[in-house]
């Protein structure tokens, strides 16, 4: 361990910035723990398992949704002391923008594959991102201690993807520690040192941020050119906001304040900004007095792909929901929202998400961290509608779809879906893709046992239960990644669901004409089960325009009365009725129909029965 | 039913009768002893404690003696449990106590619940001599299969014999209780049971939908997967009973009760009219001066406490808006409905009240509020109990 580097600026040739690209559960977090232990950044005794995944939600789901950076000290094979910054990357397909920002802060990436499971689609997609970003990619096998490990096959897969020779693939067991000591030597040897210009005007990439209730916004930065000193007057180039660098420092993983972050260094920056949304992840920090001419590349407004309405169960919670969303967007630059009003659900917000997992995480965080009880509408994608006026309009909610008379056609977003599956499941996977309107397929054998399939698939088909069905058809072995691939015209219709002849906006959906009947049947059947019997028959209909395509009926309740209420029963029976009355408060009125909150949630769930 | 607009004042569903009951004095006496537990019953009952009968009657007497004086009683109701298990002379002594403490009105109605299996012509005569004027038999069904499914021990004929001997002994009013909706009972079986009951020329009929009450053997069975009563079948069964009873000349005056004119139960009418009433015995409830109180439900605790003069386990004050809502909640069970008053006005002005009116569940008719669809009474009750104070 090299304490002399702990609290001072380090020359670039002694710095290595790298990240680990791995599929969920392929051992990235365990490996990170081993590296922290080995470099003395944290003692084994203090080691909280998987330090980098600090949020409860991440720990539960076994995924990482927040990039973080830890500064490690390592004496290289050449006997010199090095600073190695390990930058965490999210593993899930939804977070490719976050991955790309993390990659932009690195010169190298460790491509980690489970020696039993092999390379997965997301890993492959992220590896391609890293290669395209010019990173040195080091292939490695993890879990070589597992009885089911097949290092030879997985090594072949890695070489097939990255080129090179099988002898360059590292073999590790993060669990037992085997191969880990040599890993950092290889990182020092293979990953190029940063090559920023120390004399140039400051340019530092904000690759992540979070909100600390005491310190305000904390930014993770990678200094590319120049130096960032505590006390500097700085400017964020995309937002043009100027602030003072109140504190800069590094994470070991504890926050250690520094005088200065030099070129190539990775650390944190606190500006005193408290207001959410004023600092954009992906932005470039420069000096106010001597600004850089050009910002670092890579900043993009986050582009949501999936949209859903979120409504508080209790209308009085609307303001609390707004505040919670304001706070969430600080940590999550990709989350977008705008107010939305639903006839059925009242006041809420329309949110834009990177994908379904992102949507689930946001909902769970709102409910868990902010104690909100929410109803979410069916996920939708952004359609482009050609109007008779010649205008092209993007709509993110079925409610916004203009009437048929005012539109000529609708385009929907497609994605290029990459699926890696064991060869034995190809038939089932292709059947699934075809049922989801997949086009222009291609197939590529990674090895005799494993196949990569690539298709153009409408995003709306992917964001529902596609991944779950894919997993179940391949016994969990297939993996999926997708990237946007533009818009194509489709024969789409809006299916409305009517309760007692009143359309319920929350249940409307834009679907392909061939699937409208199935959607209508599914929704009406679900609602018949979910809506309690009431004082009158409730017709539940699905309709395209004025045409009914499915119908169910909730029969009127016929008996709702206590058998007895005599002298000894009054208190107890009254309390019973009052309890039942409390239950009714959790109903939403849709026209004259009482709909339990749970019915909205359950009817809109995406998984198939 | 052919009826003129001027309803006779003793007609079972007449508003005049329903409201007049608010001025009656009524007392309930609980006899908790049973020879066995019925699987659906959640009343305060004990089995195998007949050895404590004398202690129990002593405790009852102590309770009666310590109750503040009142007007002479218009009605006394012995419920259970199984009052017919007790020797009529012992019941007579309880009546004497009541008479000494409060007096009995000249036309007092004295009613008891009885099981067909422990009924006999001799017992009928003895009970008449003790002063009883009305008997209510827990027949439950006239179908053997249904009786078995309900865990009852008597045979259908015993129900018929009991009614006949009660008539012969000169009881003024004879009632039968029936239960509908037990497992496997279809509409045909129920219809035949009701017809057989009505064929006995009853003065009064009570039909109760089988209810799965927490803590009962039936509840445990249903929790373990046995079928629960089907509300749609029960609705059909209630409608059938209502039609048959009406054809037989009985008039429905409450959700579960039908009577010939002049044979409504005073004690119950008084309770539904929110009158004060007394209660004595295990777990008994009473309502006096705006206070509802109840006795201990645990048998040994009650014996000890009542003997020591402190049988009351808890009480609540029912006043103000609460009392107004309770007046409606109780009164709406009656066919005569209830005087609308402030609570009715609030219901009429509420969105839920409007929905109920639109669905034909409730109706406002001059100063009265009525439930028009008795099987949906609880929908109206819940709406009433949700009304905020004006």
Describe the structure in your own words.
The complex is a heterodimer of chains A (609) and B (390). Chain A has five domains: 3-190, Rossmann fold (3-Layer(aba) Sandwich), CATH 3.40.50.300; 203-287, Elongation Factor Tu (Ef-tu), domain 3 (Beta Barrel), CATH 2.40.30; 306-379, Alpha-Beta Plaits, CATH 3.30.70.870; 384-490, 2-Layer Sandwich (Alpha-Beta Plaits); 493-603, Alpha-Beta Plaits (2-Layer Sandwich). In chain A, 25% of the residues lie in helices and 34% in strands. In chain A, the strands form seven sheets. Chain A has an eight-stranded antiparallel β-sheet with strand order 11-10-16-7-8-15-12-13. A six-stranded mixed β-sheet of chain A has the order 2-3-1-4-5-6, sandwiched between helices. In chain A, strands 21, 22, 23, 24, 25 and 26 form a six-stranded antiparallel β-sheet that branches. Chain B has 390 residues and is an alpha/beta fold. Chain B has helices at 15-20, 53-66, 88-102, 121-130, 144-149, 156-169, 187-198, 217-223, 231-247, 266-272, 299-307, 320-331, 341-349, 351-358, 377-385; strands at residues 26-31, 33-34, 46-47, 73-80, 104-114, 134-140, 173-180, 204-209, 251-254, 257-259, 277-280, 285-288, 291-295, 312-317, 338-339, 362-365, 368-371. In chain B, the strands form four sheets. Chain B has a nine-stranded mixed β-sheet with strand order 9-10-8-7-6-5-4-1-11, sandwiched between helices. Chain B has a three-stranded antiparallel β-sheet with strand order 12-13-14. Chain B has a three-stranded antiparallel β-sheet with strand order 15-17-16. In chain B, helix 3 links the parallel strand 4 and strand 5 (104-114). The longest helix of chain B has 17 residues, at 231-247. Chain B starts with 14 loop residues before the first helix and ends in a 5-residue tail after the last helix. In chain B, 48% of the residues are buried. Chains A and B meet through helix 13 of A and helix 9, helix 10, strand 12, helix 12 and helix 15 of B.
